Amino acid sequence: MHEQGQGPGFASDASIRGFSSDHSTDLALWIDGVPINETVNGHAEGNADWSLIFSQAVSDIDVVKGPTSALFGNFAMAGVVTVRTLERVRDTEVVAGGGSNGRADVSLMTGFDKGATGGGVFGARFQREDGWRPHAAFDLAQAHARLVREVSPGTAIDAGVELYGARWDSPGFLTEEQFADRDYGVVVDQTDGGFKRRAQERVSVRVLRGRSLWRSTAYATQGRWQLFLNTPPEGDAEEGSGGQTEEEDTRFGAGLTSALTVAFANAEVTVGGEGRFDRARYENWLTEARTRGDAQELDRSRQLSGGSLRSVDRNGRESLASDGRRARRRDPDSHRTRRG
Hints:
By secondary structure, this protein is mostly beta strands.
């Protein structure tokens, strides 16, 4: 497994066995029991945004190589990455750094520890960079919070929030001649750029009794991004125009996961279920200086999915796959047009 970058304004992603968490959509990402992959995405269903990971608050990361997983369901063909964050910290830490091209990065981590009764973690981060080309700056603001409260011996309520927002500029694509002449100072269109915002909230209940563990998580997600981008000046009939396109995506979703695990002398049995609802609106326009022209694609989509799982782990040697069902419906007022 390796991590690969996507450039200013785009989240880094990961790759396992040739599958990535970006457009190939075959790598599932979970943070504190919440699935991150976006369904009904304009680029590809299952697109995962890794900017939600607040790196300073990460407790541990598990990587499960595929194919498929009874515990994590959709988008796990190549594997699953599960991230767990810290439940509590006792100190306050401030880290600041900088570098070339106007790079600055400041983060804050603080929290409290109440021992057996619970704890909390709060974090914030801001990053800025001007970029190595003109009109290539980007800003990233991120926040993380987690609270754990032990309501009785073995029973705890766990709540968390992940927030981030990014804004970036783009100088546009160079022609082959400009690139060959190393004329990197050209700004094709000052209006190129975009932003993305995403929020995620969850509440979990976990109950530990002897050799059994029951955990349920309810969550909600909201997000919006908008992108203005020059198409390459070289290419086929679609991409060779050098024009500008606008993409806009707005979505929200909610879901519930629940599982009971019982440990025996030589095996561990897990049963559970998952349900999820997502609603998204995706638009793709031909634009000039952020002024809309013809619509290339206008979609409104809703997806309701669910499934159950049965898993038996005998010293890590055997597991049974889950069964699930999915229903998808497109709104009647949706329409799609293609530029010919």
